[in-house]
Amino acid sequence: MFKWRSSQNHDTENDSVLRDAKVKELKVALGPLSQRDARFCTEGCLKRYLDARSWNVDKAKKMLEETLKWRATYKPEEIRWNEVAHEGETGKISRANFRDREGRTVLIMRPGKQNTTSPEGNIRHLVYMLENAILNLPEGQEQMCWLIDYTGFSMSTNVSVRTARDIINILQNHYPERLGVAFLYNPPRIFQAFWKVVKYFLDPKTFQKVKFVYPKNKESVELMTIYFDVENLPKEFGGNATLEYDHEDFSRMMTEDDAKSSKIWGFDDKLRHPANGHIINGHSKAEVAPEPLQVCN
Q1: CB atoms within 10 A of CB 56
Q2: CA 180, 181, 185: angle at the middle one, nearest 5?
Q3: Which end of the chain, N or C, is less surrounded by CB atoms within 10 Å?
């Protein structure tokens, strides 16, 4: 028995050494990066992309390079709450004030509170909330958790299949291994037809992270207690806490987080382009071209 444990520990150590070597290999393969790309490509980031591509360095490199191109164009770290606040007025996506038992940030989604019809607006709002969830992850934690409440859901409030596909593509291609688990709480029967189509866009690994939870099902209830403290969990998800979304309070929290994000990414919001909706003290400011970024190894 002791020999088996020793062997198991040795295998684990070997796996760790091999993975560390893969991370170093990927870092070298990427070559020199701009300051912002280097800030994004942390060790945890490299591990996530390697994990998403079964630790194949070439495939992980290709995937990561595609993400860097996407981020250079979409600029998700520069989206600010005042740009997407109208999408969040009903609280259709919010960050919970509690974490799961693994310390992961929790995003609460309520598709029944859909309030707009703009596909791009919905996607941009979700991307902002993903970036905010990542901003609030504790050190050493790379994943988040989703709680999806289907109260009030109808096909008229649901996003289109095309928008759902676009969202899934962004999540799987540019936020790999960020989702730890997603709980679909008490989805109605009419959701099943939508799910039958959407699930085929999910890769097998992501599919395994989606859990259907029904309050009258004993196993479902036990599953929620495994992941959450019921005293923190809102009643809408079978817990004892009260969930009330206050848009003004949430907006203040997001604005404070925007300031933290600006500091982390190394840019001043005051210099951002007014065409993106950024007004300083009632007056627009022209964008100031940044100095060329230094290349770092």
Answers
A1: 14
A2: 160
A3: N
Instruction: Express each pLDDT in 220-273 by its tens digit.
Output: 889 999 999 999 999 999 999 999 999 999 999 999 999 999 999 987 655 454
According to DSSP, the residues that pair with 108 across neighbouring strands are: 94, 147
> How far is CA 268 from its chain centroid?
24
Residue carrying the six token digits 């994004």: 40
Alpha-carbon distances of 211 from 13, 100, 147, 203, 256, rounded to whole Å = 32, 15, 10, 15, 33
Phi-psi region at 75: left, alpha or beta (left = phi > 0; alpha = psi -120 to 50): left
Amino acid making up residue 134? I
Element (H, E) at 154: none
Amino acid at 295: V
Token pair, residue 154, equals: 């109808």
Alpha helices of 90-188 — where are they, by DSSP H?
Answer: 119-135, 161-174
Q: What pLDDT, in 10s, does the model give residues 126-138?
A: 999 999 999 999 9
pTM of the model: 0.86
Report whether 115 contacts 89 (CB < 8 A): yes
Tokens of 175: 């936020």
Q: Which of 257, 297, 260 is nearest to 41 (CA)?
A: 297
Cβ count near 129 (within 10 Å): 24
Mark the ranges of the chain whose per-residue pLDDT is less than 70: 1-13, 268-297
| Rounded-to-integer distance, Cα 293 and Cα 267, Å | 12
How large is the C-alpha radius of gyration of the chain? 21
Can you tell me whether residue 21 is helix, strand or coil? helix
Counting Cβ atoms within 10 Å, is residue 185 exposed (0-12), middle (13-18) or buried (19+)?
Answer: buried
